[in-house]
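## retry 2 of 3
previous attempt timed out at serialization; input unchanged, resubmitting
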Amino acid sequence: MTHKFKITIPLAILVTLITVIYQRSTGPTYPKKVMIGEGDAAVKVKFPRSHGGSTDAPIEIPKVSKNMQGTITFKRYPTDDPWKTVSLTDEGNFLKFQLPNQPPAGKIMYYITLNIDGVVQDVSTVQDPIFIRYKGEVPTYILAPHIFFMFLSMLLSALALFEALFKTESFVKISYYVTGCLMFGGMVLGPLVQKFAFGVYWAGFPFDWDLTDNKLLIMVIFWSIAAIINFRKPNRVATIIAGIVLFCMYAIPHSTMGSQYDYEKGSVEIKDGFKDKV
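## retry succeeded, writing output
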């Protein structure tokens, strides 16, 4: 079986790392990073946009001045609740607050106003608040292998793509591995993760329009077709297309158009995702 692993494996690792870094830095559920303070005293603070489990979501802001104070203003989303403003608690070197826990897929929008030695600094505003989505706690024995096999499918997909571009024979067998990883990590473990986190096994087509589930479905379809075609006769074009489609799906920020709790109906719905795009 011919291959170009000395070239394609490093390329596949590089592409996978770039994709992982992109995924970790985009999407509406990753922390919002804000510089607090000015000059040499400034520090970067992460404000949560996702929280799992049954506990309240912690807000912790390092004090860059002894005279630093602040308030947090928040409300459930989407509701007609009035905004509630509370002073941050001074606990030594930090200002802290606990945003109240919500049902799985429930959201709170919030913004913070800081007073640092008489200088006011806003962390978001009422017109452009931070959105945080809550989820149930997913057991590690389900979440860890899910993440592992999804990343492995990404790596193997890149490897199969490059091997097909180099016109070797190895892409055929690799296409089977990619499909297997997507099936187990995505279609078996994925619904279990979704169930623990948001209370439903599948929120994609044909039942609903959760974009994460639909992206997975598209990847599985294209790679399954490529694997079937390769089983009958090696086909570089089908493999290349499947590989490109997979990375196009990963180019869409994670959790866009995700599950959202409807407080009026008391059920999880699929809405237009988070408004906070920062």
